[in-house]
Design goal:
The structure is a homodimer of 412-residue chains.
Chain A: E1 3-8, H1 16-31, E2 35-40, H2 46-57, H3 63-70, H4 72-87, E3 92-95, E4 103-104, E5 113-115, H5 119-126, E6 131-135, E7 138-140, E8 146-148, H6 153-164, E9 169-174, E10 195-197, H7 198-206, H8 214-223, E11 227-231, E12 242-245, E13 258-274, H9 279-289, E14 297-299, E15 306-314, H10 318-330, E16 338-351, H11 361-371, E17 376-382, E18 385-391, H12 395-405
Parallel strand pairs in A: 1-2, 1-9, 2-6, 3-6, 9-11, 10-12
Antiparallel strand pairs in A: 4-5, 7-8, 11-12, 13-15, 13-16, 14-15, 16-18, 17-18
Chain lengths: 412, 412
């Protein structure tokens, strides 16, 4: 029988009424002839409550016990979803991570999935089970202890199951109805995309569109799992949501798929750095060790062995970056005249696989921003994206202008 | 190293502060040189919340899913207790039922313990673990699904661990400070017992003294596990609580150990029953099938092949009993003139292993009640107990008078 994976996040299973609504969607796919693996999160608020308990026990807690406590929220939802499906006469049962088993590394609280043997679930599908309700976010370590997968773990669980069981599709039910050309709160012209390529979604996810966790998109891309993002609060329909898929499946597309932004960036400039081989490592090594997430890097042309080095990072990490640079200077590892932090910048990016075959996309972006009087502070590009750092006050204007310039309100 | 089992009920782990207090008691025993197995219940209120969720999904729920959901409360407490002990620098880890493993039958929601292999825990004790915190009330079925043990399951878990690991003692921490000669709310002369024999405790537990679950006392008696009942809200001391132990360990004891009562009883009389071989089976078979817990039974002397049959049951089961008898009469299985239900009776019992070697105990009980003008409706006796059914309005008077007559306020 063809198989679907359906994942419901915390807000989609927050109450028994919502669990019932989600179960109806599952029942609809079973009636359509699918076997279904349902991945559930904890009822919203539950995981935070459990994390709070753990943190209250002390500051340096054992991640193994953290996992044992925090994973229990998903177990509750899995059982309740199975019961609700049974009440609708859909043959269902719940599975905890260790029962599947979902085998992970022993990196507690942020474990990686190693393997999902399919024998146990397939045996039960063979005996007439139509729905396996799996507690998301959790697995079992080689030592037999419960692990959790860390941030975005339930999305990742869903994609991993879809890959292991060869599912036709992996539907991620959330509280937004799909992926948009940009944030609808910034321009009402934002349009929901019917399809988006994995590579585009990956750039959008890591650029701040909080629909899907980067990790789950990477996994979907690697195993070519077709992902659909859709809202559990809308009426079911066959073309609901956004399909994230290999680019071959997208016949026509705009050159630019979307405009992403990241509001709280900082631009850091090290002035009068001694330019010598290994200087980049001497700067960015200590920053990485200090936990500073450096994003864009620009080095000015050297003038007499002296240069300026500019990088961007989240504004919340400026203090850490300053301390790391001062320490490196004090230790004699680098020399610079001063470190200037500009905390009032934002990043705006255009993303699209069409850029690969279309010249002039970056130029059109720069021209659009110039026409609006927006000064560009830093530029970085990849094959399918162009990002610029600008003054934060122009961010919304820039997003709107780029959305208009590339006519993203129109479908291809 | 000598080993103790310590069990903390729901009120003893209701908050993180209380978990900390319980952990301190555990730490004290570790400092005394014991390895400890701690059995925990869910934080009070949690299990009821989860049961409520399950019941909301529908009236005929799958007991396997019920178990998967309801068992999660104990997992949370086990992890939090392990973390709290670690914070106090006591080497501890949590164990869920399937990790131990605690092997049970597949009678979900009321499973029986089959075996507790000791290898896993003992290996960790050998590696330096001093405390194993075990989630109570749960185990794993032969099919690998989570089971729960039903009412009193956590006490039973504790006793079973004490038996399997040859523990020196099993301490049951609860919200009362021990077993009393009678309910202190009925007479201020009620005295806490230092020791009580298993057989006595069993009679007291099943007669309504709600300190320990009958099932756990039976298990303790079978495996000679010394049980101590004590309060987690009192300062620790070596002679706290009540020790439930083999009668050989009780040097001196009163003839009567305690006076128990059960308030909500009903006395049912079948009048003019045809007295023939098999009539008792014809009456009590249907009652058992209807789920009526028949306690005392008295049959009058037969007069011309016609007799009266009297039995007692909880007052809440009277309607069921009436229906079962009417149905049996309609089916022609029994014949009787009428069924009279007296819903205003209570049961009062005296219990003590000393009765075996002392004559006249029952006579003294009857005389005491007569002197108070209390009419006895039904009497039953066993080797170590005498029970009477009386009008409910005399219940407190009867308990007080018997407590005085047998001088239970004085230690032996």
């Amino acid at each position: 029988m063809p198989l679907l994976v359906m994942k419901f996040g915390g807000t989609s299973v927050a109450t028994l009424d919502r669990i019932r609504r989600a179960a109806k969607r599952v029942g609809r796919e079973v009636a359509n002839g699918y076997d279904v693996i349902v991945i559930v999160s904890a009822m919203s608020g539950e995981t935070n409550k459990l994390v709070g308990f753990v943190e209250e026990t002390g500051p340096f807690y054992d991640a193994r016990e953290y996992d044992a406590v925090v994973s229990s929220g998903e177990n509750v939802t899995a059982g309740l979803m199975a019961l609700t499906l049974q009440e609708m006469e859909v043959p269902a049962r719940s599975w905890q991570g260790w029962q599947v088993p979902l085998l992970t590394t022993d990196a507690h609280a942020s474990a990686r999935i190693e393997e999902i043997p399919t024998a146990n679930l397939n045996a039960k599908f063979g005996e007439g089970m139509r729905v396996a309700v799996v507690a998301g976010f959790q697995g079992i370590s080689p030592e037999g202890r419960i692990t959790t997968l860390g941030r975005g773990g339930s999305d990742t669980t869903a994609v991993a199951f879809a890959a292991a069981f060869g599912a036709e599709r992996c539907d991620i039910y959330t509280d937004v109805d799909g992926v948009y050309t940009t944030d609808p709160r910034i321009t009402t012209k934002a349009r929901k995309l019917d399809r988006i390529a994995f590579e585009e979604m990956l750039e959008l996810a890591s650029l701040g569109a909080k629909v899907l966790q980067t990790r789950s998109v990477e996994l979907a891309m690697r195993y070519k799992v077709r992902l659909r993002v859709l809202s559990s609060f809308e009426e079911p329909s066959d073309d609901a949501g956004t399909l994230v898929c290999p680019e071959e499946e997208i016949m026509e597309s705009n050159v630019v798929a979307g405009v992403a932004y990241s509001r709280d960036e900082a631009k850091m400039t090290l002035q009068s750095v001694e330019d010598r081989p290994g200087i980049a490592a001497a700067i960015f090594g200590p920053l990485a060790e200090a936990g500073v997430n450096v994003d864009m890097i620009v080095q000015n042309i050297s003038d007499g062995g002296i240069t300026d080095m500019t990088f961007s990072c989240p504004v919340g990490e400026v203090a850490r970056a300053e301390k790391a640079m001062d320490d490196a200077k004090a230790a004699g590892d680098i020399s610079f005249a001063s470190l200037i932090a500009d905390k009032d910048v934002a990043k705006v990016s255009i993303v699209g696989i069409g850029m690969r075959s279309h010249a002039g996309v970056a130029a059109k972006m720069f021209q659009t921003l110039r026409d609006e009087g927006v000064n560009i502070k830093v530029i970085t590009t990849s094959e399918i994206k162009v990002s610029v750092l600008i003054d934060r006050k122009y961010m919304e204007l820039a997003v709107q202008a780029l959305h208009d310039a590339f006519e993203l309100e129109k479908a291809a």
